[in-house]
Amino acid sequence: MTRKPAVGETAPVEAIPLERGQRVRLADQLYGQIFEQIVSGRLNVGDKLPSEHEICDRFGVSRPVVREALLRLRADGLVTAHQGLGTFVSHQPAPRLKTFPDVQNVGAYLRAQEVRVALEGDAARLAAMRRSDEQLHKIGQAHEAFVAALAAGQVSPEADLVFHASIAEASGNDFYLGVLESIHEAISGFMRLTLSLTRTGSRQRAQRVADEHAAILAAIREQDGERARVAMQFHLGQARYRLVDRERD
């Protein structure tokens, strides 16, 4: 049984060697390891993380790598830094995340999501302004298929990707679709995690996802570019929010 650290005592952080020369950046790997230890309960709310220097030594990485990982953990509301005291775990995502085999890759997934917010928001704006009736029909079909799969508890990343790719295609700029394809692996991984949470979560969570897609579709149908951009960026922001599970549904 693991001893719980005393108040003010630094909690033990398990250090699995990071893989250099891999496609996954060191900061992403470090983020993923700390994230996984928070999810699993090896690090609990209130636990103090080792200092930057100690993390550097344990993982064999530079201080900029550690600072980037900690900065992103703070941005996601998982840890809080107190000047002169250190960094403490402030929130634990849903424990069911620990059952997903690729949870340690969540750092890369969230970084790709940041790109999507800017990219797909603008693609949705252009799609609303430029889409043809045929393209609108294709987006509508993708939405209906996604909602049907969601209701049946069988939704897959592919069904979600078709909806987003259809919008990028309707933007009239093939670079949007090209960029999405270039980060396809990270997007698919992100969707696997968030959709798994949706399938195993409450009906309200699933309905929110469907409603967000419907709002995007409605704005594109009405050719309201700014509303489409806002709806898409809200949807992608909520997807990130759902992954760190602050909603606690």
Automatic annotation (TrEMBL):
Domain HTH gntR-type: 24-92
A GO molecular function held by the record: DNA-binding transcription factor activity
Signal peptide start and end residues: none
Superkingdom of this protein's organism: Bacteria
A Pfam family of this chain: FCD
InterPro entries according to UniProt: GntR_C (IPR011711), TF_FadR/GntR_C (IPR008920), Tscrpt_reg_HTH_GntR (IPR000524), WH-like_DNA-bd_sf (IPR036388), WH_DNA-bd_sf (IPR036390)
Keywords carried by this UniProt record: DNA-binding, Transcription, Transcription regulation
PANTHER family per record: TRANSCRIPTIONAL REGULATOR, GNTR FAMILY, UXU OPERON TRANSCRIPTIONAL REGULATOR
Protein name (database record): GntR family transcriptional regulator
Taxonomy of the source species: Bacteria, Pseudomonadati, Pseudomonadota, Betaproteobacteria, Burkholderiales
Gene: lutR_7
